[in-house]
Each structure stands twice: as structure tokens, then as C-alpha cells.
């Protein structure tokens, strides 16, 4: 479900000239920052997880429970390819999408990829009360999150662009840092700091 966001500024912060993909751990802020970023650029935002849920008419947790993670990852790759085939957009991906070499190759070929990097304590603070995270439905969800973080952080580090998320930043402040990084990466035309 691709949604066009309402512009939060009188004039866009710039023009998106290349799709932008936000990657990172669950709780890093990919969807929240993506929405504000799209609004500030007057661009469309797509969320690969939301697209998968809409087409399957099931939640991510239900897909994992019924069909398993490999099935979900296959659908995720197809959805990402379809979304990137359209006009430039902001694409928020699930936390595991970047783990696939095929997805990394596609994303880096078709878009500017930025890792929203958050430390483990901040991630835990943001996800600990949510029961919508299938990979955290374990006896010790914090330990599961820590294991995922340890496994995934070196792969996320392969993203060409990084923004470290500070716990005290609002979504808007984080987005300002992302906008600056994207302008430096050539994804936005006409951005004024």
C-alpha cells in the first residue's frame, strides 16, 4: 500500500531524484523517519512490510507463523523489486531485508541506501512493549534482540550511508540529519540546510 504523505512544509525540502531506502534494526525509526522524510520532500513513501501484509491479507507475525521466515523473505524480495521499479520514492524495509545479498545488490543498484543506526538500549526501549515482532516472541526477547543486533550490525554497516540515531532526538531532528546525508549522497536536489 503506497501512500502519498501530506506535505508538512509550505515548500518541499528538495526534490527526490533517486529512491531512498532506509535500513536498520526494528525500532530504529525507519517507518517514522520515512514518513516525515516523504512529507518534507513531497514524495511517496512505501513500506515493504505493509505491502506484504496488504497482499497476503495477513500480519507479518501471521505470515511467519503459517508459512515461515523463508517464505516471507521470498515475498519481501519480490515486493522490494516491484516498489523500486516505479518512480523515486522513500522505501522503508523490514529489519531483515538487508540481510539478503540479492536484496543488497538490488537496493544499492536502484537506490540510495541509508542505515539508521541505533544502539541496543534505544532499540529495546522502543520495541519492548510491542507484540508485533515475530523474531522477539521468545522466552527472553531482549536477549533475542541483542543476538539479532550482533548478527546484523556488521551487515547493516555495508550500507553506503549511515546516520546514528540519538535517543534524545525527535523524529523531526533525526529526519533533518537524514536529509543532510541524502543531499550529500546526491539523492535530493535543491536541499538547503
Structural key phrases:
193 residues, 8 strands, alpha/beta, 48% helix
Protein described:
With 193 residues, the chain is α/β, with parallel strands linked by helices. Helices cover 48% and strands 14% of the residues. The protein has helices at 30-41, 48-56, 60-67, 69-84, 101-110, 120-127, 141-156, 171-184; strands at residues 3-4, 15-16, 20-23, 44-47, 90-92, 112-117, 161-164, 188-189. It has a 6-stranded mixed β-sheet with strand order 1-4-5-3-6-7, with helices on both faces. It is globular and about 50 Å long. The two termini are 31 Å apart. Mean pLDDT is 87; it is low at 1-9.
Rg result:
16 Å
Helix and strand element order: EEEHEHHHEHEHHEHE
Instruction: State the shape.
Output: globular
Separation of termini? 31 Å
**Mean pLDDT across residues:** 87
* Poorly predicted runs of 5 or more residues: 1-9
Taking the sheet with the most strands, its summary is: 6 strands, mixed
Question: What would a concise description of this structure say?
Answer:
This protein has helices spanning 30-41, 48-56, 60-67, 69-84, 101-110, 120-127, 141-156, 171-184, and strands at 3-4, 15-16, 20-23, 44-47, 90-92, 112-117, 161-164, 188-189.
